[in-house]
Amino acid sequence: MSEPCNLQVHVNGRQTFFLSQRIMCKYSTKLRKIIKQEKRRVQIKNPGIRVDDFPGGPDGFELVSRFCYNNGDTPITVSNVSLLHCCAVFLGMTEKATAVNLLHQTEVFLDGIFHWPWKDILTCLKNCEPFFPSAESCGLVEKLLCSLLTKIAQNSDANSLSVSSSSSSSSPETARTLSTQGVCYNGSMSSRKTAAAWWFQDLTILSPKTIEHFLRSLGSYGAENNNLVLTRFLLHYLKTAIQNNDKNLYIPTEYTGLADTAVHGVVQMGSTAFSCRGLFWVLRIVSGFGLGREKRGALERLIGEMLDQATLDDLLVSGGSSNGGAYDVNLVVRLIRLFAHCYGDDVSLHRMKRVGELVDMYLGEIGPDPNLKISKFLGVAESLPDFARDSFDHVYRAIDIYLESHPSVSLEGRSKLCRCLNYKKLSLEACKDLAMNPRIPPRIAVQALASQHPSAATLRTEEFASDNDGSVTGSTSCHKIDDYQLVLYKNNESDDGRSKSEEGGEEEEEMKTNLERMQWRVVELEKVCREMKGQMARMVKLSPQQNRHLPRMC
Fold first, then answer.
1. What string of DSSP letters covers 395-435?
2. CB 143 within 8 A of CB 112
3. Residue 238 confidence class, pLDDT cut points 50, 70, 90
4. The dihedral of CA 262, 265, 270, 271: what is its sign?
5. CB count, 10 Å around CB of 187?
6. pLDDT at position 326, please?
7. Cα–Cα distance list, 33 to 29, 30, 40, 527 (Å)
8. What's the Rg (C-alpha) of the chain?
9. Contact of 80 with 154, CB cutoff 8 Å
């Protein structure tokens, strides 16, 4: 005879079950209590009850219902034991309800957990994640983690979780084989290709919440982490999370605590366990997880102290969408300042010049970035003291690359960009190239040439530049240019007289030639300007009504 379905159960607001009240209440003390309270409240013979926060939702309740309708018997496996156990605890399916109860059956199954294979423990732990609060409150997570740690300890050496292999073996049996064969690996994280312990990759299937409990059970979460192996594991775990981003499994805020824990471990180990390149690798990994300001600052200080050991590839850290550029230029500026601040006047000239060479290469690399602002370029170029460079040729080349990639930069912007140059430290070849470079403002070119020899310093450079940069008109402009021609030729004649009595006459002659070229370049610019003004005047005569709308060209 079939039982009447006189009980409606709304589970987590998602699904309604129509069941026999007698059968369900036979195995659950909590359902009895809820039904009794509901009858008193509404005075209805066949009440409908709501069950919220049920472990596993409708799927979990269906498993429990099958257990009840099958006279207290259901297959228990590694895949469903965690869900059945939590459901039994939630519904009070204990000996108080009946001798044949679900809680007792799941506990008996879980008693053999320390003899389970490694993969079964991981599977059961992974299955707890959809209803993690329930599994944690009933002690199931702690029990599974204890079993997991036991497996790791049994198949690792005496140095506490430090056995590692060149590849993830996916089981402790392979690790034991490697150990018996005498295979030994270095646990130092000196490069990004450091070998991972056999259990690293297997634990990447677990959620950040589970990994957090894993670390807490070892007393190595947050500021308590001083274990190199666990730090290496966290870095491997975070790197895998980034790689799995295309699977929509990566929510950065969930990993922030783990990233802070990893960085704390890295800072604790310092340069004894991590090279400069390894630290940059760490920075790239943790940057996308909302790293705390204090932790990030500590990591950057550690890198800044070793900046002279970095390479160009290390500095090319992606800027991300928030920085508006291809590279994180602000990071490099901070690292340079930290390097200079950490050592102050005690830093050796050799180390400072190594950083100077590195920065010059970096400037040449970031120059083509179309989103790079002049202020950021100057921030990098001017972050080092003058003595860090023997020559400014590479800085000039970087400026030229920048201007070539940014043709719309104004005359004022180009002049501002050149302020980071020390003309006295430019080679003669670089200075000649600068003088003939159409992207360099005339005033800058004259100053650079004048700095090559004291005799050229007598030129009235500033007056010359100010008149050339501004707008001049008509015959007044021609008179000014003629005056400067006289000044140039007069000085050139005196220079020529001195050059005959001094060594290096050929260089002076070459410099005078460059100055003359600069003068004729200015004359040509003035000529073009006058032609444009003439064309504008003719256009105004033809269309007087549109006069106010014409742009001012010169």
1. HHHHHHHHHHH-TT--HHHHHHHGGG--GGGS-HHHHHHHH
2. no
3. very high
4. negative
5. 18
6. 87
7. 6, 5, 11, 100
8. 38
9. no
